[in-house]
Amino acid sequence: MKENLIKRxxxxxxxxxxxxxxxxxxxxxxLVFEHYSNTTKNDLFDLASLTKVIFxxxxxxxxxxxxxxDIAKPIADVFSMAAWGSCTIRDLLTHQSGLPAWIDFKDVPxxxxxxxxxxxxxxxxxxxTTRYSDVGFLLLGKVLEKELETNLMxxxxxxxxxxxxxxxxxxxxxxxxxxxxxxxxxGYRKNICGDVxxxxxxxxxxxxxxxxxxxxxxxLTEFTKLWMTDNGILTRKTQDLFSQCFYANDGSxxxxxxxxxxxxSAAGLxxxxxxxxxxxxxGTSIWIDRKRQIxxxxxxxxxxxxxxxxxxxxxxxxxxxxxxxxx
Length: 327
What we know:
The protein has helices spanning 2-14, 51-65, 75-79, 89-93, 110-119, 134-148, 152-157, 161-164, 199-204, 217-225, 236-243, 309-326; strands at residues 21-27, 30-37, 45-46, 167-169, 213-215, 246-247, 253-254, 276-280, 284-289, 294-300. It is of the alpha+beta class. The protein has one domain: Beta-lactamase. A 5-stranded antiparallel beta sheet has the order 2-1-10-9-8, sandwiched between helices. The longest helix has 18 residues, at 309-326. The termini are close together.
């Protein structure tokens, strides 16, 4: 497995998938594989939407475990918005709220954001399908702030130290820019390095629930163990709940915060159906087989090379399938 993985990772560099790639594989005993292509163990990657599971989903899980968050609570009960009907916190976590995938918030002042998010709801779209939504997670952040009565940055700093000591919000990167892998151009900005690639996270500023964290391969490896092993932080019951599939009316599925493999998934053509995982737009991913206690962490900065979605997907599938077929 190790030789095949190294060959595929180095081929990714050669073929221009990304200028910098890091990958690790872990099992119940610990680290099985670790490789750095044009990068080092100290380098930080823009984790993009992995922020959704590292921060927001993990925060939700811990607060559910403590009895402070009820995922069955309707959004209308949080913000007194009758138009939201029976849509719940769970529906935001599973991307089944019907909210659009994305809205450009570049020119929206922070004090107007909540009304914009709440106004994007459509009862006709609710539960119709699983539509991956940054908008939904931005609203989830507002829900958490309201329910827990504090801001997102404070909530982030209350997470376990294995996260907060080694995975950094982009606004805290001033002393670490020399170790950050650049991510190229976004819709509004050029040659990004040290700032978050996601434009909404950048223009909204501060800690956001959908994007904005940076971390090294080793920091992601330690985080992943939190969701695949017995530990003193997340109970097995909580892990099981957040790994459970929830289905929209069209049969599409999503776990609580976590993605699950669909047909032709980036998790691999041979991916077990019971995986949980997540992708990041910059070329990052985590996939976890909780039953066999195996996980693959893949970090790239594919946006710097403007790699097509098709090419990064094929690369991800190849890397993951090598692991699933070997272990």
